[in-house]
Amino acid sequence: MVVALVLAVTLATQGTSHRALLWGGDAEGGAPFVEADPANPSRVRGFDVEVAERIARGLGGDRSAQFLQVQWSNIDQSVERGDFALGLSGVEDTPARRARHAVTLPYFEFREVLAVRPADAGRIHGLADLRGRRVATLGSTIAYDLLIQARDSTGVLPISYDDDVHPYGDLVTGRVDAVLLDHIIAQRALRRRGGFVILNQPVAIGHYVGVLARGNAMLRDSIDAVLREAMRDGSLEQIFRRWNVWDETQRTLFERVLRSSEAAKGVATATSVQAFAYVPSLARAAVVTLLVSVLSMALAVVVGLALASGRVYGSTVVRVATTIYIEIIRGTPLLLQLFVIYYGLAGVVRLPAFLAAVLALGLNYAAYEAEIYRGALEAVPRLQLEAARTLGLSELQILRLVRGPQALRYALAPMTNDFVALLKDSALVSVITVVELTKQTAIYATNVGSWVVPGALCAVVYLAMSLPLSRLARRLERRWKTP
Amino acid sequence: MSALLIIDRLRVRFETRDVLRALSLEVARGELVALMGPSGAGKTTALRAVAALQPFDEGQIVVDGFALAPGTVPPESRLVVLRRRVGLVFQAHALFEHLTALANVTLALRHVLGKPRVEAETIATRLLSELDVGPRAGAWPRQLSGGEAQRVAIARALAPDPALLLMDEPTAALDPARRSALGATLRRLCEQGRGLLVSTHDAEFARAHADRVVSLSPS
Fold first, then answer.
1. B169–A contact, CB cutoff 8 A
2. Which fold has domain A2-106+209-271?
3. Which of A279, A339, B12, B207 could bond B20 through an S-S bridge, CB–CB 3.0 to 4.6 Å?
């Protein structure tokens, strides 16, 4: 039954792929690029959707454009894998992308613009005025590379986000001091929530392109021909006007493209961040991972001990309260808890990202540690506790001298296990802008266009952190083991 | 002889069943009383009630002037006097497995009586030697034989120098030779002026070593 279903779906997909231009984009990026159609959420709309449809029509054979949802940062990898033929979704023109994939000619020119709070507008005129300040952007973008360069030259503090909505929210609430992103994204955020101003002087100029697999140059050439045609016949202009993103710079771009058969070169500012340039970032990110993990685990142990004591020694009220905490925390996703602590609580207390990450991970793991400690405490034979009582030891002395030391031995192996798991779960904190090892690896992989080397490096670093820990735990277990 | 322990009409119920019904007995200083009866007769329950590990429903227990009343077991803070006067040797010994034989014995000396480490170890070593397990002081509980573990448990219970020593089925795991050695040891403890209440279902041991035998009938 299942096999038949899979076969049917596969055949159906293949059947349509002959007639359709399969293109990939990220609807999470939203309007005006690609967004779920509010009238029919199973469909997408946006200027990139219409560009894809225009391209499909232009390719002839009454083709239609068929959309495939893909995470924005994975468009390059997916197109090279053959998941779809064309990636379109505010895909930026970079030398690295041109070197590794077949890239269409640029069809839209954007400006990297800075957004700041109104009070700062008089003082901040460019990246040079942001020394030591936190500047947010979307990870794996030209803007991020610009910030990395600015970090080394002018000392700004780049903060990477997974989406392009929260940077502006955090700008308004004061978590960051500026946001560097494409002017389309900045203008959309200004319309939606306001509370900041966009600086006139762009930091850099960039272009959106379509990306195809390296071996697909023939289709790319056909698409380039369609795009030129669309620039000439005004259909591209109509699309951009419909989505309110047309301006005179696009006319200049079209003229330049049509004049030269050669595609426009990449961004004005140099973005050729070399692969090896990421190694120091990777090392920094590894330190962040280790710090987040160690601090979270310390918090988890302390809170876990308190919770376990509450469950074992507490009154009925305390026992019920600790049980409710443990069940709620274990029964809901860590990701949700991260969002609640970072964004949900922002109205009450605006926690810095790193602190929020440590709190969320620590409080989450505390629930698991508590259950380990409770189990370990209860595993110490009751008769030994009674023997200790008959000797005249107080409850606290029994815990400290008899029950605790034996429980610790029982708990050691599962605790080590949890710490290794936490080390890897710490990758989740990247969703609240903490750039740790996995996030940095993803950025690295996007920029070099392959997961092989960054993935292997990342795995080696994780192992280098977790293996010594397992060995230490085994040594402690051996040392504490009574014959 | 003044009574060290008085148990007066002790009644213990487990749910609807009487485990003990109107048990009365006395133990004087220097006296070894055997509490006899088949399994399930309530011997262990009686010892646990005297050691304030087990609540009882009716009657009274008085240890050297310290009275326990029916109802829930009082908190440890109210039992300090009783704890100094009563020692209990469990049938399963219940040695602290993370501590050596010596550390099992010094634990109460150091942390309850507040003796310095060296003094505590001197006392513990003497106790272990008197019980013929001196050479095993450095061993872990799991390395001890049943008889050795029992003697370490006796030493641990004697460390705070209680006037009354309770022992639960001490002969259960011993061969005849060890049984008579144990009997001699217990007699020696009586000669030191302690009172001993020993539960056993070993009639021969009771006849040979006890001053008196109190029999419990199955309830």
1. no
2. D-Maltodextrin-Binding Protein; domain 2 (3.40.190)
3. B12
Q: Are B52 and B67 in contact (CB under 8 A)?
A: no
Rounded CA-CA distance A188/A202 in Å is 16
C-beta atoms of B140 and A483 within 8 A: yes
CA distance B49 to chain A (A): 12
Chain A hits for B149, CB-CB cut-off 8 Å, are: none
Considering the segment(s) A108-206 as one domain, its CATH architecture is 3-Layer(aba) Sandwich (3.40)
Nearest to B90 among A383, A397, A482 (CB): A383
Q: Is the pTM of this model over 0.95?
A: no
pLDDT band at A431 (very low <50, low <70, confident <90, very high): confident
Considering only CB atoms, which chain B residues are within 8 Å of A482? 97-98, 140-142
Q: Where are the alpha helices (DSSP H) in A175-243?
A: 183-192, 217-232, 235-242
- The C-alpha of B109 sits at a distance from chain A's nearest C-alpha, in angstroms, of 9
Domain spans of chain A?
2-106+209-271, 108-206, 276-480
A103 closest CA partner among A23, A223, A204: A223
User: A444 phi and psi, to 5 degrees?
Assistant: -60, -50
Q: What is the pLDDT of residue A15?
A: 43
**Per-residue confidence (pLDDT) for residue A4, from 0 to 100:** 55
* Tally: H helices and E strands in chain A: 19, 13
Q: What are phi and psi of B106, to 5 degrees?
A: -80, -15
Tell me which residue of A76, A177, A176 sits closest to A433, measured CA to CA: A176
Average pLDDT value for chain A: 86
pLDDT of residue A237: 94
What does the pLDDT average to over A436-441? Answer: 86
Nearest to B174 by CA among B166, B165, B164, B184: B184
For A390, nearest residue in chain B (alpha carbons): B83
Q: Residue A19 has what DSSP assignment?
A: H
What are A440-451's pLDDT values in tens digits? 888 777 667 678
> What confidence tier does A392 reach under pLDDT thresholds 50, 70, 90?
very high
Best CATH choice for the domain A276-480 from the list 2.60.40.3880, 2.60.40.3500, 1.10.530.10, 1.10.3720.10: 1.10.3720.10
- Which stretches of chain A sit within 8 Å of chain B by CB? 381, 383-384, 386-395, 397, 401-402, 405-406, 409, 480, 482-483
Task: List CB contacts (< 8 A) between B143 and chain A.
Answer: 483
Among A377, A380, A384, A390, which would you mutate to test the B interface (most chain B Cβ atoms within 10 Å of its Cβ)? A390
What ipTM was estimated for this complex?
0.94
Please report which residue ranges of B59-160 form alpha helices under DSSP H.
80-85, 101-111, 117-130, 146-158
> Contact B90/A386, CB-based, under 8 Å?
yes
Q: Which residue has the higher pLDDT, A153 or A14?
A: A153
How high is the pLDDT of residue A321? 96
Q: CA-to-CA distance for A329 and A307, rounded, in angstroms?
A: 12
Instruction: Report, as an integer, the average pLDDT of B104-122.
Output: 96
Query: Which positions ≥6 away from B150 have C-beta within 8 Å?
Result: B89, B93, B170, B173, B174, B182
